[in-house]
Design goal:
The structure holds two protein chains of two kinds. Chain A is an alpha/beta fold. Chain A contains nine helices and ten strands. The chains are: A alpha/beta, B mainly alpha.
Chain lengths: 258, 234
């Protein structure tokens, strides 16, 4: 079986704080993996070790057949890995000095050396798909959070990455803007691209995920199909987390046992 | 008011404007370039070099420009002379024109101040901007030149504008080492007839006009560089 993403024994500490305590995760092409967990569980850090924004202290990361050791790697290997991935950030992080169109084009032109005319053409197509056809020449500062995040998704999509990493893509949004972004992500998921999503949107996870991973204390506590994890979780910690986050009982009575 | 003197002296003083501008542009160009290098070294915390630069910047900023100029003018040539002599060569340091020393001193001074401006304005660009650039596969250098510097420059430009205007005025220090820039020309030309008041009024007007002009230029540039902060664009 060929995996698109393979994480092996990922460990990471910030000082005395052991954020990741040896995480293994294999993801097949086209899988949509949603990572859930309380804050401080290491889920965002795990995501950031994949594209080496926070290189792990130990372990190996493979994306699309390129395997990179967290400790011993060259700049070239790191760059190669980053070029096989794309990321959507919690705070959008659109390039503030560039228009929406330029934001999307930037990776194509600067990194992939696509001719400008062609880059502009396909960038516009992607922006049209995320519903920003009337915002090409706007700077990020003049857009709503939802619009900025959809542009962020377009910027990631255009690179045609092996995997897109979503780091709490709706956490910074006003509640009424969450829907438009989630819809956009769902549309992206439907195209069959491999995605890893860190989120707190349980309902969304249930709908979009092909697999849900529950993390706590720097390890994966359990993982499985959305129904298994979200409706019939085996682990106490998972159930506690879910009941905290939804404020209701899940799994029809099972949560009382243990 | 001696209008006859003014009519005769004004064109003469104006002839010194190019020297003042040469000193200004040269010091700003080399000083800001050096300042950027110092800022980058200090930001990336290159060991030893980073600390040395920190001390030099602090030293530079704590010493009056005129002292720096005297050091450049009196100490540096002597040092070159004695060094050359020690390796058995005879160098005539007097052929180096005074304007070079002035530019050297002003350059170091500009570098010290500009490095602080660049350092703080680069720091002011959010870490998220770098991360986004790296996440699309850019190298650090690409991220710097395409994303970070343009935003940092927008933050830096009002301070750079002030630094530049100050520099125009600082070129008058060239007077003390015999550079015939605006101030010294005005002084020299007014000595025989003691028309100092007229000379200083003319000098004031010229500096005012130069400052006004460059203020405007920087203002226009600031507007251009900060356009991304505007709410709506065309």
């Amino acid at each position: 079986m060929k995996y698109m993403v393979e994480l092996h024994n990922i460990k990471k500490s910030f000082g005395d704080n052991h954020v990741l305590r040896g995480v293994d995760l294999d993801i097949m092409q086209g899988e949509v993996v949603v990572i859930l967990g309380p804050s401080g569980s290491g889920k965002t850090t795990l995501l950031r070790t994949i594209n080496f924004l926070d290189p792990a202290d130990e372990g190996t990361v493979s994306v699309g057949g390129s395997t990179v050791d967290s400790q011993h790697h060259t700049k070239g290997q790191m760059l190669e890995l980053r070029r096989k991935t794309a990321m959507v950030f919690q705070n959008y992080n659109l390039f503030a000095n560039k228009t929406i169109l330029q934001n999307v084009m930037e990776g194509l032109v600067t990194v992939k050396k696509v001719p400008k005319d062609h880059a502009m053409e396909i960038s516009k197509q992607i922006l049209d798909k995320v519903g920003l056809s009337d915002k090409y020449d706007f700077y990020p500062s003049s857009l709503s959070g939802g619009q900025q995040q959809r542009a962020g998704i377009a910027r990631a999509l255009i690179l045609d990455p092996d995997v897109i990493l979503f780091d709490e893509p709706t956490s910074a949004l006003d509640p009424e803007l969450v829907g438009e972004v989630l819809t956009t992500i769902k549309n992206v998921a439907a195209t069959g691209i491999t995605m890893i999503i860190v989120t707190h949107e349980i309902a969304f996870a249930k709908e979009v995920a092909s697999r849900v991973v529950f993390m706590e204390g720097g390890v994966i506590v359990e993982q499985g199909k959305p129904d298994e994890i979200l409706v019939h979780p085996k682990e106490l910690r998972t159930r506690q987390f879910l009941s905290r986050i939804t404020g209701e009982h899940l799994g029809e009575g099972e949560e009382e046992s243990q | 008011m001696d209008f006859q003197f003014i009519a005769h002296a004004f064109p003469e003083i104006c002839k010194a404007i190019p020297i003042t501008l040469l000193m200004t542009f040269a010091s700003a160009f080399f000083g800001w370039l050096l300042g950027l290098i110092v800022a980058m070294v200090r930001r990336s915390k290159v060991p030893v070099l980073s600390q040395i630069f920190a001390v030099l910047v602090s030293f530079n900023r704590s010493v009056p420009s005129i002292i720096l100029l005297y050091i450049a003018y009196y100490v540096v040539p002597a040092a070159i002379y004695f060094y050359a002599k020690s390796i058995g060569k005879e160098i005539d340091v007097s052929v180096i024109p005074a304007v070079i020393y002035s530019i050297a001193a002003l350059t170091l001074n500009q570098a010290a101040y500009a490095s602080e401006i660049f350092r703080t304005s680069i720091d002011a660009v959010g870490e998220g901007q770098v991360e986004a650039a790296l996440s699309v596969g850019m190298t650090k250098t690409q991220a710097m030149f395409r994303i970070i510097f343009p935003q940092a420059l927008a933050t830096a430009i009002p301070n750079l504008s002030g630094l530049f205007i100050g520099l125009i005025k600082d070129t008058s220090l060239g007077y003390y080492v015999g550079v015939y820039e605006i101030t010294s020309t005005a002084n020299i030309i007014s000595m025989p007839t003691l028309n100092f008041i007229e000379a200083y009024i003319m000098t004031t007007i010229i500096y005012e006009l130069l400052s006004f002009l460059f203020n405007r230029l920087f203002g226009a540039e600031e507007k251009h560089l900060t356009r991304f902060r505007a709410r709506v664009t065309a």
